[in-house]
Amino acid sequence: MSTGEFKTFRTAEGDEDGKKRWLKMRKGVADIQRRAEISQKVNDRHASFLAAVAETEPLRKLVETLCEPVTWRGRRVRGLNPLASAEVQLLEIVSRADFLIRGFRNRDVRQLLYATKEVRIKEQRRQSAAVTRQLRLLQAHGLIRKQGNMHRYQTTDKGQKAISALLAAHRADVAKLITTAA
Q1: Which of 49, 130, 134, 140 has CB atoms 3.0–4.6 Å from 77's, for a disulfide?
Q2: Is residue 1's pLDDT more than 60?
Q3: In the chain, where are the structural domains located?
Q4: Can you tell me the mean pLDDT for 75-90?
Q5: For 24-45, what is each residue's pLDDT tens digit?
Q6: Sign, CA torsion 83/112/50/153
Q7: CA distance 178 to 65
Q8: Which among 39, 44, 135 has a CA at the least distance from the CA of 93?
Q9: What is the pLDDT of residues 136-163, one digit of tens each?
Q10: How far is CA 18 from CA 8, 12, 14, 101, 168, in A?
Q11: CA angle 25, 27, 28 (to 5 degrees)
Q12: 57-181 classified as CATH 3.30.70.1450
């Protein structure tokens, strides 16, 4: 990941009297403070993600509210089905480690979910709309949140805990689950 993918609030080079705006981060030490700020946020998200592994709360408590329908922005949103393969695949995609740094976009999820190369514009729009509905479902349940004025999403602390627990339970074999329950 290059520094040009990150933004810093500054004036354009050579334009001392110009207005400040969000521009690409420079490679030198000029933007070291912003680079440190971004790095600290990434480290905090990573530490929070690792802390979710040590969660002692029962899975039932973490997941119970996710399976119930909720009202979000005045509309009813269905509950999650944590055992459905399509929803497990979506949770695996949004919890990828490479999305801890910058978050993820609809396009990122669509490319990983459908893994098709060249598609027609109509099909691409249909896939994008389907991903939007799935992201809205996760957002309504508080698993992801939208980042500021960007078209990017980030997993929340609640989302990291719940998604990690669901994926661990999904991958666990029956013998292991029975021995821990006894």
Answers
A1: 140
A2: no
A3: 1-54, 57-181
A4: 91
A5: 888 888 888 888 888 888 788 7
A6: negative
A7: 24
A8: 135
A9: 999 999 999 998 888 899 998 888 888 8
A10: 15, 7, 9, 30, 52
A11: 115
A12: no
